[in-house]
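Weekly modeling sync, notes
Attendees: S.R. (lead), two postdocs, one rotation student

Agenda item 3: backlog of single-chain predictions. S.R. asked that every request posted to the team notebook include the full sequence so nobody has to chase files. The rotation student volunteered to paste the first one in as an example of the format we agreed on. Action items at the bottom.

Example entry:
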Amino acid sequence: MSAPTSTNNLLEIEQLSVCFGGLQALDRVNLSINEGEILGLIGPNGAGKTTLFNVITGLTAPSHGKLRWQGNSLAGKKPEQICRLGLARTFQNLRLFRELSCINNLQVAMGSNNRRAALELLALVQLQEKADAAAASLAYGDQRKLEFARALATKPKLLLLDEAAAGMNPIEKQDLQALVQRVRCQFKITILIIEHHVPLMMQLCDRLAVLNFGRCIALGSPEQVRRDPLVIEAYLGSQR
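Predicted structure, as returned to the notebook:
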C-alpha cells in the first residue's frame, strides 16, 4: 500500500445514477480514481458495486451523470472500445473461454500468438505449468488467477477486479494481496477492486470508497473509513 500515487485523475465519475425500473441501483455517485493508486470499493450486497463496474466498462448505460476517462467522455462507447482505451476487468462470475487452454485464453486477449509473452503472464500468476491445460480443468482459485492474467494481457491502464478473492482460502488471499501490489508496481497501472473481505481491503488499498443503497457514503484512507460512523452502521458493524 506504500507505492506513491499521482494526483492525476484517470477516471472521473460525476453524479452517476442508474435506475432499473423502480430500483435505484446507483444514486448520484461522485468518485475520482487517481493514477497509480489501489482504490477499494466496499459495501453490503446489493449496494451497487458491480453495477458501477458495469457502467464504467460499458455494459450498463447510466440513467444520469458523466464518466470521463483521462478528461474525455465515455458516453455511448461500447465495451470493446472502452477496453481499447485501457480499461480491463475481471468478473464476479468467471467468463473464461473454458474449452481453450490457459495460454490460448491469454493469446485471444492479447490479439497475438506470442507464446513467450503469454507464458510470462502465466508465470506471474503461477500457472505456467498449466499453460496447455483447458481453463475448465483448473481449480476455482486457479481460474480466478487466469482471469486476472487475461485482463492484464490487454495491457490496461486501469484494472478493475470484481471480487477477485471470492472462494479463496486465507493463504490464497495473502498471495492475491501480494500479486495485486506487485502488478501495480511492475506494470505501473491503477487498480479498482471490489472485495467483501474487509481486512484484506484495509491492508491492500490506498483509499476506500463505501457504497450503501447506491450512494457513496464514505471515501478516504482505510483508517478514515474504518472510523466513519456511517460505515460502521451500514457495513462494518462488529468488524470495527
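Discussion: group reviewed the output briefly. Residues 96-153 form one domain.
Action items: rotation student to repeat for the remaining queue; S.R. to check formatting next week.
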